[in-house]
Write a structure and sequence with these properties.
Layout: E1 11-14, H1 22-31, E2 39-44, H2 49-60, E3 63-70, E4 73-79
Parallel strand pairs: 1-2
Antiparallel strand pairs: 2-4, 3-4
């Protein structure tokens, strides 16, 4: 896995405060604004996002780069592959 602390995301989607399926819906909307090869960062407070976002990324053909835990929320990184 890449060093997530140094990733420059080209798009940040803030889904904090939303429960499932909020973070997934936010990711779906956000990924269209990201060019292939670029990274989207999803901010989420819903713990289910740690399972849901990687599963969604895999299903859509994107690469899940990992998750960083912050104070009270998570940053999840998805690289658009196509």
């Amino acid at each position: 896995m890449a060093d997530l602390a140094n990733i420059q995301a080209s798009k940040v989607v803030d889904a904090r405060g939303t429960a499932c399926p909020g973070p997934i819906l936010a990711a779906k909307k956000g990924i269209v604004e990201v060019k292939p090869g670029e990274v989207m960062e999803i901010l989420a407070t819903d713990s289910g996002s740690q399972k849901d976002i990687p599963a969604w990324a895999k299903k859509m053909g994107h690469e899940f780069l990992g998750v960083v835990e912050e104070a009270g929320y998570w940053k999840l990184y998805v690289k658009r592959m196509k």
